[in-house]
Specification:
213 residues; alpha+beta; outer membrane lipoprotein receptor (LolB), chain A; twelve-stranded mixed beta sheet; 12 strands
Length: 213
């Protein structure tokens, strides 16, 4: 009888985990399909980096416009443009533009163009808690890197259950660092200039151009 009860408990537990994983997978699929259906996406966000043991806390705001793989990101006084072939980091403080090819970017880094789809590869996932944020139901999905050597311990992805848009991303590092990106506004299919993702070198004639290629 004890063996039967143990078997039933393990079976029920396994089925519960399996159902949770399937629900998480379906939810992430819905999010991915929704994101890919837009011509472009404009996001204003808050970014917080914390490490309690090191007494570190940094908070800033930024914005990004994405169209396919292309993007223009503004954060910490720096503008970053990716035109589909090259990345341009523009620093007015240093009067410098750093240029690199897409191949020189770290494939493991979560770039703006990957921000809304990075979870599609390299992670296992499970449903986590549900929170009510100003009347919005936010369902969290916990992502764990498949690579045991990853510096990331896990990621919590908060998803608006109604719109299927990402509300926030909480990344926990193995070194105790916690980074949180919270979306303040999420706009889609806005009218944007055709030259938005084009780097115009004539605007930076007084800047030092640091070409890494």
């Amino acid at each position: 009888m004890k063996r039967i009860l143990t078997f039933l408990i393990l079976t029920i537990t396994f089925c519960g985990f399996s159902q949770s994983k399937n629900e998480a997978k379906l939810l992430l699929k819905e999010v991915s399909e929704k994101v890919k259906s837009y011509d472009n996406i404009s996001i204003d966000f808050k970014y917080v980096l914390e490490n309690i043991s090191e007494n570190v806390r940094q908070e800033t705001r930024g914005d990004v416009v994405m169209q396919g793989e292309k993007y223009i990101l503004n954060i910490l006084g720096i503008t970053r443009i990716y035109d589909g072939n090259s990345t341009y980091n523009i620093s007015p403080e240093d009067e410098e533009v750093t240029v690199s090819s897409s191949k020189s970017d770290d494939d493991d880094s979560i770039t703006p163009s990957k921000m809304l789809s990075f979870y599609e590869d390299g992670y296992t996932y499970d449903l986590d808690i549900v929170q009510n944020v100003k009347g919005r139901k936010i369902q969290y999905v916990k992502l764990t890197p498949i690579d045991s050597n990853s510096e990331i311990k896990n990621i919590l992805l908060g998803i608006d259950a109604q719109t299927k848009h990402i509300y926030n991303l909480i990344q926990i590092g193995k070194n105790g660092t916690k980074t949180t990106l919270t979306v303040n506004s999420f706009k889609t299919n806005e009218p944007i200039s055709k030259s938005l993702f084009t780097f115009d070198i004539s605007k930076y004639s007084d800047y030092y151009i640091n070409n890494l290629d």
